[in-house]
Amino acid sequence: MNIIEVIEKKRDDKKLTFQEVEFFVNGCINGKIADYQASALLMAMFINGLNNKELFSLAKAMANSGEQFNFNLPKKIPIVDKHSTGGVGDGTSLVLAPLLASCGVAVPMISGRGLGHTGGTLDKLRGIAGIKLDLKKITAEKQLSKLGLFMVGQTSQYAPADKFLYALRDATATVPSIGLIAASIMSKKLIENLSVLVLDVKFGKGAFMQSASQAKKLAGVLIDIAKANSIKCGALITNMNNPLGRAVGNNLELIQSIEILKGSKEPGDFYNLIIELGKKALVLSKIVKNKTEAQTLLETNLSNGKALNKFCSMISAQGGDVRYIKNTDMIEKSKVQVSVRSNRNGYVGSIDAKQIGFASVLLGAGRIKKEDLIDQSAGITLNKIVGEKVAIGNVLATLHTSTKSRATDAFLRVLNAYKITKLLPKKNKIVECEI
Question: Across the strands, what pairs with 398?
Fold first, then answer.
């Protein structure tokens, strides 16, 4: 097989076979296909699109480029994961993974690091001293059998072709392709040997998908790939025009998530989204008969400490210091805190999630490039959120950072992200629809 012929075929908008896609993916990994040739084929895929067979082939070939999990679990235990397409203040995985595991399903979660204005689960977990997030395959498999839960990062073991191709896409302006995005996401899910996958596909100012229709299209493609691989899959299309919860930034979101695990139901939008995602997962897993039973089980395990205990067990098994969970004052706090105060009376009508996300990056909480270092303690506390009444001088938000200059850079961006209205706004709808 000749890579030039494969490029020509896709350039001319002809459909690739599984063998051709597999040849391309394997050639990228073993060095037999040059970067410029891989980039040319990616651009052809970006311009001409991918049909379902090509998508299935690409996701499968990328998954097969590394190791696959083989969990030794009883057949009656569903293997479940959740994926979010990325947002601002979205630390729901930290709660949802142990919560689902406490309900009787197994949760093998391979998570990513944050990039740009969206946060990553791995960065949040690093706020706990000693935590190991690069578990070897055999160690992760044993932990899932014992605890029903692990949370690790993508390494060279797992779908290495995805990491290679993403780097090329990032450098060749081919990232915003629904097909390539879907294949990338699913390549990491196919190696988990899942029974059920729940998707949180976000749209709005703080999301990669700007409209609900785009989010639905991506969700549909992801579900099709999952079903083609015998994975039960459903999605929530969720609104990311405003940040989720009150915390933006790794340690701040970690603390907020721990408080939910300890029984708090605030902030309400954050808590409710966790429950909605959990209901979807448990119903698809057939752990419960319906959503009512699912909600009761989820809320019970948050209030009785079972979800918290599961989280602590996972942290301990992965080398983390559980004292950080029991006493969140041990989690690193920022050296500099600056208040952003309202200059108007009224109500918080909206908060631009994208601007808040970019402000958090300026404070040190995020990355522009994957290799950038982050400040774990940096971020933004949203003292006032949508629908709350404010008066002149009230603190809208608190900036957390390491230097005053960083706070100065972010201050106006945060202030301008808040839209203060005279009238009480309509209640913010987080879940747009369910698929």
Answer: 339, 381
Say how far residue 61 (Cα) sits from the centre of its chain. Answer: 23
Instruction: Calculate mean pLDDT across residues 308-327.
Output: 96
Using N-to-C axis directions, what is the helix angle for 178-190 and 160-171, rounded to 10°?
160
Q: Where are the domains of the chain?
A: 3-49, 80-154+193-326, 332-421
Q: Of 242, 210, 198, 224, which is closest to residue 353 (Cα–Cα)? A: 242
3-class DSSP state of 236 = strand
Say if CB 370 and CB 120 are below 8 A apart: no
Q: Is pLDDT at 404 greater than 60 in this prediction?
A: yes
Q: Fold for domain 3-49?
A: 1.20.970
Residue 369 has what pLDDT?
A: 60
For residue range 20-63, what is the model confidence (pLDDT) as tens digits?
999 999 999 989 999 999 999 999 999 999 999 999 999 999 99
Distance between CA atoms of residues 182 and 49, nearest Å:
12
Question: How much is the mean pLDDT over the chain?
Answer: 92
Q: Residue 368: is its pLDDT beyond 70? A: no
DSSP 434: E
Residues with Cβ within 8 Å of 78's Cβ and at least 6 positions away in sequence, in order, are 105, 106, 195, 196, 285, 286, 287
List CB contacts of 344: < 8 A, sequence separation 6 or more: 390, 392, 420
- Asked whether the bond before 267 is cis by omega within 30 degrees of 0, the reply is yes
Q: How many residues make up the chain in this entry?
A: 435
Same fold, 3-49 and 80-154+193-326: no
Catalytic residue list: 83, 162, 169, 184, 188
The answer to whether residues 86 and 204 touch, using CB atoms and an 8 Å cutoff, is: no
DSSP string, 120-174: -HHHHHTTSTT------HHHHHHHHHHHSEEEEE--TTS-HHHHHHHHHHHHTT-
CA distance 17 to 6: 10
- Cβ within 8 Å of residue 45, ≥6 positions away: 10, 54, 174, 177, 179, 180
Query: CA-to-CA distance for 49 and 100, rounded, in angstroms?
Result: 36
What fold, for 332-421?
A: Aldehyde Oxidoreductase; domain 3 (3.90.1170)
The dihedral sign for the CA sequence 6, 12, 13, 14:
negative
**Domain 80-154+193-326: CATH architecture, name and number where available:** 3-Layer(aba) Sandwich (3.40)
Distance (Å, rounded) from C-alpha 212 to C-alpha 26? 35
**Distance set, CA 6 to CA 18, 37, 155, 180 (Å):** 12, 10, 29, 17
